[in-house]
Amino acid sequence: MSPNTFKQIVLRERPVADILPDTFESKTKAFDELHVGKSQALVQVTYISLDPAMRGWLRDVRSYVPPVKIGEVMRSGGLGVVVSVGEGSKFQKGDLVQGGFGWTEYAVADDKSMEKISPPPGTTPLDFLNTLGMTGMTAYFGLHDVGQLKAGETLVVSGAAGAVGALVCQLGKQVGARVIGIAGTSDKCAWLESDLGVDKALNYKSPTFREDFAKVVGYLDVYFDNVGGDILELALSRLNQHARIVLCGGISAYNDPQPKGLKGYLTLIAQRAKMQGFIVFDYTDQYPVAVKKIAAGLADGSIKSKFHIVEGLQNAPSALPMLFSGANVGKLVVKVSDEPSMSSKL
After folding, report:
1. Residue 280: closest CA among 248, 312, 318, 239
2. What is the CATH number of domain 5-130+305-335?
3. Cβ(304)–Cβ(331) under 8 Å?
4. Cα–Cα distance between 89 and 333 in angstroms, integer?
5. In 182-283, where does DSSP find H-type helix?
6. Is 145 in a helix, a strand, or coil?
C-alpha cells in the first residue's frame, strides 16, 4: 500500500560560511501530490549521495549548474526503485535506477533524467554512487584525461582518504606511478598505505608536514587537487617541468565567504606546467569505458571502495558538513529506505 505522506528536505536559507542546522528544513508532502506523467516514473529513493560539490550548489552564483532555489528540494544524486510508471515510459516496475532525485523519499522523474543500473559481477548497486558513478568518473577522467599520468611519474593526491581521492590513488598505482596521498589523521594515512597501497601517506596536520612533503615528494609530475588552499600552494612550489595540476575541488575554501587567491602560480611559467579545472559531465559519452575498467578492478579486488553510511533522510543535513570537517572515511551516503517489495501495490 502507498503511504499517505512522504518527507522532503528543502533549502531554507543560503549559508554564508558553514552549513548550519537551519540551512535546510523538512517538509511533509501528501503522497497523492505525486502525479506520474507520460514518459515518467515514480521512484522510491533508497540512497542519496553527499558530495563536496553540493556546497557550491547552495551559492547564488554563476556556475556549471543553476543554484538550488530557496524552498527547493536539495539537489543530489541517488539510487532508487521504480514503483510505478507513466504512459510510454521505458522503465518497468522494480527497475533499479540512478538519477538526480534529491533529498526526498519519493520522486517523479522524467525517463531521460535517470538510468537503469545493472551491477556488473562483483559489484553492488551502491557502487553506482561511488566508484561506478560520478565519484568514479571524476577520478578516472580527471587523472587520465586532464592529468595524463604516465608510468614512473610521481602523483600527489590531496583529500586522498575521500571517495574521489582514494580511487585516484588506486588508479595511479595501476598506471605504475609513485603515489603519495595526503590525509588528515594517522588512521586515514595508515589505511591509505596498508589497504590502498600508496607509496606514502602524509598527515597535513603534522607539525612537520611541509618538511615531510619536500622530503618524500621531491618534485611532482601530477597533483590531483581536492583541497586547494595552503596545500595547493605547497604543491605549486614542488613542480617538475611540464607538471599537471588537476583542479578537481577546493574543499578548504568552500565554506569561506572570501577565499584567498593563489600566490605561487608563477611557478607554472618557470616549469612550463599546466593547471586545469574540469567538470565530469563533459565526459558523459565516455562513461561506459570507465565503468567497464573500474568494475573489472572491483571484481578482481585490485580496486577497493569504502562507504560511510548515515541512516535516515532526516540526518542528511547534519551529515553533509562531515565532508568539510573530515569526519567521514570513504564515500558518504545516506540510506533513505530499504528496497521496496515489488509484491506491494503502490
Report:
1. 248
2. 3.90.180.10
3. no
4. 28
5. 186-194, 209-217, 229-236, 267-270
6. helix
In tens, the pLDDT along 128-148 reads 999 999 999 999 999 999 999
Cα gap 77→96, rounded to integer Å: 14
26 burial type by CB count under 10 A (0-12 exposed, 13-18 middle, 19+ buried)? middle
pLDDT reading at 272 higher than 70: yes
The percentage of residues in the chain with a pLDDT greater than 90, rounded to a whole number, is 88
- Rounded distance between C-alpha atoms, residue 290 and residue 141, angstroms: 8
Burial of residue 245 (number of CB atoms within 10 Å: 0-12, 13-18, 19+): buried
CATH architecture of 134-282: 3-Layer(aba) Sandwich (3.40)
In whole angstroms, what is the distance from residue 278 CA to residue 281 CA? 9
C-alpha cell at 268: 607554472
Strand partners, 305: none
In the three-class reduction of DSSP (H, G, I as helix; E, B as strand; rest coil), residue 109 is classed as: strand
Distance between CA atoms of 193 and 157, rounded to whole angstroms? 13
Parse the chain into domains and list their residue ranges.
Answer: 5-130+305-335, 134-282
Percent of the chain surpassing pLDDT 70: 98
The Cα–Cα gap between 70 and 68 comes to 7
* 2 vs 188: CA distance, rounded Å: 43
Distance in angstroms (rounded) separating the CA atoms of residues 152 and 260:
34
pLDDT at 98 over 80: yes
Whole-number Å distance between alpha carbons of 310 and 335: 6
**Cα→Cα distances 328→183, 187, 189, Å:** 12, 12, 14
Helical ranges in the chain per DSSP H: 53-57, 134-141, 163-175, 186-194, 209-217, 229-236, 267-270, 287-300, 316-319, 322-325
Residue 290 amino acid letter: A
Q: What pLDDT does 345 receive?
A: 42
CA–CA separation, 246 vs 253, rounded Å?
Answer: 17
Write the single-letter amino acid at 283.
Y
Element (H, E) at 118: none
Q: How would residue 126 be classed by pLDDT, with cut points 50, 70 and 90?
A: very high
Residue 221: closest CA among 273, 166, 176 = 273
